[in-house]
Specification:
Blueprint lengths: L3 E2 L2 H21 L5 E7 L3 H17 L2 E7 L5 H13 L5 E4 L9 H6 L12 H8 L8 H12 L8 E5 L6 H8 L7 E5 L6 H6 L3 E4 L17 E4 L3 E4 L7 E4 L4 H4 L5 E2 L6 H21 L4
């Protein structure tokens, strides 16, 4: 068999088209969604991510306000900028690109963001509201994965989902979303302390790999017909490539695609959905803060 390729790029394009209509509606009522983007340092991956997000904003009419700080910026200066964005009526969403340099307390920085503008969904208040299924901003990658499953008609009701990874950004919030009644999956979370990883993954109807380790999920771990969502974006050396490396996920794509029922590619799977959900959260924030209903 050959797996159905879940084209995250195409699905994200559809979502952006839907959002462009909402942005046009808001702008027709005098509200232009605004996103403040804060980048510390010049990490190539972070710069690339920020550039992609700003380009996506421009394409659908969201205004982006970028601030770049040097790698050695004082934490106080970063917090001051966040406070300024919290007060700015033209800023509806605040994005601080992670990771931050080691001398900066990431939790303190995230917690300083006004929860009503926390379009990444990382503040303790939004994470707590998510757990209680109250109105909130849901972290973009987990939200994008759920959207992929729904729009690809992957059966989730009663399915056994195995999440490989327990980060605060993906693994933990994703597990919470999967057990909601609207999805209704039974969830197992695997991590570095899990014994017999292969046995757990092999029992899954839905495998979501988000550990950040290339090739962690091999073809022999995949159950025939399972849905495989690969969140990993790993750079591995490849002298045949112009940049000297290639991108790959956490899953053996070539092998798994012959066994699975559905599978996401890397790149072109979860990544575009993360940006689409960031845009969606920003549009929602503009609507909520302005009081203009969509």
């Amino acid at each position: 068999m050959s797996a159905i390729l879940i084209d995250g790029k195409k699905i994200a394009e559809d979502i952006r088209s839907e959002l462009a209509e909402k942005v046009a509606s808001l702008r027709g009522k005098g509200v232009r969604p605004g996103l403040a983007v804060i980048l510390v340092g010049d990490n190539p991956a972070s710069v690339s991510y920020v550039t992609g997000k700003e380009k996506a904003c421009a394409e659908i009419g969201i205004q982006s306000f970028e601030t770049r700080f040097p790698e050695d910026v004082a934490e106080a200066s970063l917090l001051e900028k966040i406070a300024e964005c919290n007060r700015d009526p033209f800023v509806h969403g605040i994005l601080v690109q992670l990771p931050l340099p080691r001398h900066i307390d990431e939790r303190r920085v995230i917690s300083a963001i006004d929860p009503t503008k926390d379009i990444d969904g990382f503040t303790p208040i939004n994470l707590g509201r998510m757990l209680l299924e109250e109105p909130c901003y849901i972290p973009c990658t987990p939200r994008g994965i759920i959207e992929l499953l729904k729009r690809s008609a992957v059966p989730t009701d009663g399915a056994h989902a195995v999440v490989v990874g327990r980060s605060n950004i993906v693994g933990k919030p994703l597990a919470n979303l999967l057990i909601r009644k609207s999805v209704n999956a039974t969830v197992t979370i695997c991590h570095t302390g899990t014994e017999s990883l292969a046995a757990h993954v092999r029992a899954a109807d839905i495998v979501i790999a988000c550990a950040g380790k290339p090739g962690l999920v091999s073809v022999d771990m995949i159950k025939s017909g399972a849905c495989v969502i690969d969140v990993g974006v790993n750079r591995v050396p490849d002298p045949t490539k112009k940049k000297g490396y290639r991108l790959c996920g956490d899953v053996d794509f070539e092998g798994a695609s012959k066994i699975a029922g559905w599978i996401t590619p890397v790149p072109g799977g979860v990544g575009p959905m993360t940006i689409a959900m960031l845009l969606s959260n920003t549009v929602d924030a503009a609507s909520r803060i302005s009081g203009v209903q969509l």
